[in-house]
Design brief:
The protein is an alpha+beta fold. Helices cover 51% and strands 12% of the residues. The protein has two domains: 76 residues; 197 residues, Muramoyl-pentapeptide Carboxypeptidase, domain 2. A hairpin with a 5-residue loop joins β1 and β2. InterPro entries: DD-CPase-like, VanY-like_core_dom, VanY/YodJ_core_dom, Zn_M74/Hedgehog-like.
Length: 278
């Protein structure tokens, strides 16, 4: 009996120890699980925080880029007008006027000197045109000559710096208001595109004046320039002057391509009006 009780006591003690051990294991496992859960929650929270930071930085960057784009596109001219920086400076139909300017530092590609007559000797910057315009001018001048019309190219491409000097001189000699009517502020001149050429004739005394439109050369150009992709960029009429911002200039030819030129000249509209229809 005593042995039996001793044996039962030992077994009971062993069971108690085993139960306690099991509790300890469960407790440790539970603690470890809780710790792991906490770590995972902290990791997720940290990842979420990093994600939020990244999204906020991205948002701020987007806002900064948008603001910069707006500043790049809209500037204020010296006259107080809002000026849009064009995004297609190489296009034949690029609109450059008092409210649309070329990007800073823009220089057109493929500038070349057309094989036509000039009323002066030597080689100058202003003799250049972009290749498509130069080729078209050569064809027009050759066609005119075959009909006894002798044309001269006076002034084509002008760099930003050259236009700046011209405008400053006009301001000094004519006043700012008149200078803005007869010439363009730097960056807003069609001559900088390489697509414009001022032409003249001996009958016009090689001058760039409105009387050129009344000469036989000026009349021929007005009638035939569109066949070669050119338009008289600043046509006659107060209504047209309000649109272009410039007085009548029968000598100022702008290359836009034959399709656009024929439509513009046939309908007696400006480049601004033509682009508004597109």
């Amino acid at each position: 009996m005593i042995k039996k009780n001793i044996r039962n006591g030992i077994i009971g003690a062993g069971l108690t120890a085993l139960i306690l051990s099991g509790c300890s294991i469960d407790s440790t496992a539970s603690t470890q699980k809780s710790s792991n859960d906490t770590s995972r929650h902290e990791e997720k929270a940290e990842q979420s925080a990093h994600k939020n930071d990244a999204q906020e930085k991205s948002k701020q960057q987007d806002q900064s880029n948008h603001k910069k784009n707006q500043e790049d596109k809209l500037q204020t001219s010296a006259s107080g007008n809002k000026v849009t920086v064009v995004s297609n400076p190489k296009s034949n139909l690029v609109l450059v006027n008092k409210t649309h300017k070329l990007p800073d530092g823009y220089q057109p590609p493929d500038l070349t000197i057309p094989h036509v007559k000039f009323p002066y000797d030597g080689k100058y910057e202003k003799m250049h045109l972009r290749k498509p315009a130069a080729d078209a001018l050569e064809k027009m001048f050759n066609a005119a000559e075959k009909q006894g019309i002798i044309l001269y190219a006076q002034s084509g491409y002008r760099s930003f710096d050259r236009q700046k000097a011209i405008f400053a001189n006009n301001v000094q000699t004519q006043g700012k208001k008149q200078a803005s009517i007869v010439s363009a502020q730097p960056g807003t001149s069609e001559h900088q595109t390489g697509l414009a050429m001022d032409i003249t004739s001996q009958d016009a005394g090689f001058k760039l004046e409105q009387d050129f439109g009344d000469t036989k050369e000026g009349k021929w150009v007005a009638q035939h320039c569109a066949d070669y992709g050119f338009i008289i960029r600043y046509p006659k009429g107060k209504d047209k002057e309000k649109i272009t911002g410039y007085e009548y200039e029968p000598w100022h030819l702008r290359y836009v391509g034959t399709k656009a030129a024929k439509y513009i000249m046939a309908h007696h509209i400006t480049l601004e009006e033509y682009l508004a229809k597109k």
